[in-house]
């Protein structure tokens, strides 16, 4: 039986869950360097949106973003097992209940990027739980995504209507295929990951400036859509980390390092002059709940690269971003002796309450995960 604890309130929780109450966070002061405590407070706030509107998801109309949140939470639970042990029932609930949101049986819908977020999320849940149910769910999703191969531009389609060839779908597919090679083994996972990686870097999507562009227009001779978003740059870094683990081939790290260096450089397309990861829409406080997710995906990928190929520049970048969002883009509300940490979209600040929601909360957790993992 499924019980939505968020609707019951803390006073009605079963005794086994009362421990959650004793873990409640009260920040005595704002310290941007206490990554674990800051991540707890950030995750608490993200979890307040869990199941409030759509069972198994976070808030309203946040389908693929919820896959990102599941990734971030599974990663944080691994970094902080005590915290994870209080909340880890969410994974079974999401697995069984979330597909009801759009009647997306098995987390499959019309978009290969949506599927890729969930596929990679279930690998993160598998890493945390060691429960093969989640690995099998990732395999089911992967098998559907493979059906998106065969565009006139190479790679996989963005969508099942075959309208566009997006960098993001291809980055996520490459990461998922390589991730399955590392966890499930066998099959064509590694060969498909390598083939799609090689295509990605020969397709024109990655510029000579080592900045990833948005995709190729299949209805216009595969012309380049030159838009730049942080997530396209970050997901392929995670794919490189998985491919390196699967093969030991340093080429993946060298290629990814060039992309990481280009995008972490102050004043680059993706980073402010003061070294803070910035989505284009952050500059005008105009991000929507799509773009608000992107920086989380970027820094998740940089974390994965940093963990297999540590570089002091990237470590400094990760910690600078985790500290900046705490110092410049946070609103702390004290409610009944508990701190609620609400993080906005623009990590360089200022905090803007119109740009603060479950999505910005999830992206911030990715940044805090990265700082925690990279400094442990
Ligand atoms: C390493 O990977 C690159 C990129 O896919 C490939 O060109 C190269 O042949 C690989 N090297 C080895 C030793 O397999």
Give the topology, please.
Elements: H1 5-8, H2 19-22, H3 35-47, H4 63-79, H5 81-87, H6 90-97, H7 112-129, H8 132-146, E1 165-166, H9 167-183, H10 189-202, E2 215-217, E3 223-225, H11 230-247, H12 250-264, H13 294-308, H14 312-328, E4 330-335, E5 338-343, H15 358-375
Helix pairs in contact: 3-15, 4-5, 4-7, 4-15, 7-8, 7-9, 8-9, 9-10, 9-11, 10-11, 11-12, 11-13, 13-15, 14-15
The chain binds 2-acetamido-2-deoxy-beta-D-glucopyranose.
Record keyword descriptors for this entry:
globular; 376 residues; 5 strands; disordered N terminus; 53% helix; binds 2-acetamido-2-deoxy-beta-D-glucopyranose; two-stranded antiparallel ribbon; 15 helices; mainly alpha; three-stranded antiparallel sheet
Question: How does this structure look, described?
Answer:
- This protein is mainly α and 376 residues long.
- The protein has a domain at 149-256.
- Helices cover 53% and strands 5% of the residues.
- It is built from 15 helices and five strands.
- Helix 8 (132-146) crosses helix 9, helix 9 (167-183) packs parallel to helix 11 (230-247) and helix 10 (189-202) packs across helix 11 (230-247).
- The structure holds 2-acetamido-2-deoxy-beta-D-glucopyranose.
- 2-acetamido-2-deoxy-beta-D-glucopyranose binds next to helix 10.
- Residues 1-20 form the signal peptide.
- It comes from Talaromyces amestolkiae.
């Amino acid at each position: 039986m499924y019980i939505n604890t968020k609707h019951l309130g803390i006073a009605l929780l079963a005794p086994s869950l009362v421990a959650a109450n004793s873990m409640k966070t009260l920040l005595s002061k704002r310290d941007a360097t206490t990554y674990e405590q800051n991540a707890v407070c950030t995750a608490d706030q993200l979890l307040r949106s869990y199941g409030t509107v759509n069972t198994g998801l976070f808030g309203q109309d946040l389908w693929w973003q919820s896959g990102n949140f599941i990734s971030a939470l599974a990663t944080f639970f691994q970094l902080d097992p005590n915290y994870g042990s209080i909340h880890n029932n969410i994974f079974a609930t999401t697995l069984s209940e979330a597909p009801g949101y759009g009647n997306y049986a098995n987390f499959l819908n019309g978009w290969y990027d949506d599927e890729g977020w969930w596929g990679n999320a279930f690998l993160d849940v598998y890493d945390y739980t060691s429960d093969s149910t989640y690995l099998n769910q990732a395999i089911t999703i992967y098998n559907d995504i493979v059906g998106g191969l065969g565009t006139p531009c190479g790679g996989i389609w963005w969508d099942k209507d075959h309208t566009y060839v997006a960098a993001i779908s291809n980055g996520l597919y490459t990461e998922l295929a390589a991730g399955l090679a590392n966890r499930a083994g066998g099959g064509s996972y590694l060969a498909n990951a390598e083939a799609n990686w090689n295509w990605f870097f020969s397709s024109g999507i990655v510029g000579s400036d080592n900045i990833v562009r948005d995709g190729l227009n299949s209805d216009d001779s595969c012309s380049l859509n030159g838009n730049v978003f942080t997530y396209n740059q970050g997901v392929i870094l995670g794919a490189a980390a998985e491919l390196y683990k699967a093969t030991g081939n340093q080429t993946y790290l060298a290629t990814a390092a060039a992309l990481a260096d280009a995008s972490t450089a102050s004043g680059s397309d993706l980073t402010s002059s003061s070294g803070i990861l910035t989505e284009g829409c952050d500059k005008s406080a105009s991000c929507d709940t799509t773009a608000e997710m992107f920086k989380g995906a970027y820094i998740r990928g940089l974390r994965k690269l940093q963990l297999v190929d540590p570089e002091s520049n990237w470590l400094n970048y990760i910690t600078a971003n985790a500290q900046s969002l705490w110092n410049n883009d946070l609103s702390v509300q004290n409610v009944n002796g508990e701190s609620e940490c609400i993080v906005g979209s623009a990590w360089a600040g200022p905090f803007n309450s119109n740009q603060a929601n479950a999505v910005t909360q999830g992206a911030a957790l990715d940044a805090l995960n990265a700082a925690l993992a990279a400094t442990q």
